[in-house]
């Protein structure tokens, strides 16, 4: 047992999966949820997935040994500040936001001295959202990035690392800025591109779609509000990687509207080499 | 039994799957392959997947009731002409090329009068290639586009339709030009985009890749030579759809390097609506 009481703020796909994994692996004794009471949350209470649920942070975090914030990225920083204000001074606080620099940097000076906070991002998820898709094995073998900062209590990193390893994940430390530049390439640009591709499909061509189009656009099924907030918090890195992407595509055709065969062959060969290196 | 002898030119993923499906569903009595003798082809012969195999077209098509050409798109037209020159005049000829206008139009005037030819494209496949990935069920419930032309014998369309239905597929007729404009959106642009995304991934970020990037770039594992030839034969439609795509992406940022929130929200919402309409 790592934690007596674990509080999860935002019990959706990720928060719910943390609850299930923590229960299954004995990482936490008592699991408390924070969020609006929904039918799904009532169900989770009835099935013992969580032990209690509160609509407000205050009563939910007073006893917590650790609080994991799993809300949309534009809510996280304010909630961390609020949690730090009503939790014990030794309560561990972390988050699962898909962006890190905006969140972590905006907490500097807003958290009490010695706050045990470290930013985090589990590289696991789905285009689906909601507690009904929660999965106790979502984090097994997956990587969680932690983004330590000198401004917070240094022992939070080791404790949150132990927590995630307890859920079956691997942990890697990066600076918030390096994390954001990386996910601009690995996640944010692919999402934008998938949405643009899906958006171009006229209804009368739907019957012509095969597995390639389905795969390439799958992530476009994600929640537009969540993604708008993510893009906003990673605007500069997204812009940079989008520019590079558009340049590479633009060079496929020369000025005379003909394919530039040498560029095209290089682009396809590099794409295949990199994709093959990832495995299936 | 629809065909006494079926000849498949190019026994790879698609050709091999046709052989397996035709055997499993009793669509053909004798199945003859055309292609270089490889270990996999020897294996296919030994296991009775095909009954005979020839390196050359001549001896393989003399007896054929139907010939399906499953070679790369830049080989198809010339092979169809050669087949028509050495097969019976009533032999049905079709192909499975991913482009249609270039192939079909380049056959006008090169095939004998009354040739029983119709172009075809089964919308099924994989980023994998090779006989070892052949699957008897590859075409079950999938759509095959046929592109009839007034220049060839009209009864070929009905016969090839019956053939594909025998393999479990559905059939739709389109003009070669409509087909090519459609697959530029549903297949060719997604492939180009997936390759460009995969090509941008530095080796040191591979460990940060999760299922989203894998899905979005899966098709980039396809054979660059096959795809270069496909893009060349659909240059104009690809250019047009790429321009539209680049424009939609470019508008995500305004001149001041800030996200254009109203465009972004619209793009994400439309992408989700269209992707959700496809189902998983």
Q: Low-confidence parts of chain A lasting 5 or more residues at pLDDT below 50?
A: none
Share of helix of chain A, binned: 40-55%
Order of helices and strands of chain A: EHEHEHEHEHEEHEHHHHH
Distance between the termini of chain A: 35 Å
Verbal overview:
Two copies of one chain form a homodimer. With 280 residues, the first copy, chain A, is an alpha/beta fold. The first copy, chain A, is built from eleven helices and eight strands. An eight-stranded mixed beta sheet of chain A has the order 3-2-1-4-5-6-7-8, sandwiched between helices. In chain A, strand 1, helix 1 (13-24) and strand 2 (28-34) form a beta-alpha-beta unit. In chain A, helix 4 packs parallel to helix 5 and helix 5 crosses helix 7 (176-199). The longest helix of chain A is centred in the last third of the chain and has 24 residues, at 176-199. Chain A is globular and about 70 Å long. The two termini of chain A are 35 Å apart. The mean pLDDT of chain A is 96. At the A-B interface, helix 7, helix 8, helix 9, helix 10 and helix 11 of A face helix 7, helix 8, helix 9, helix 10 and helix 11 of B.
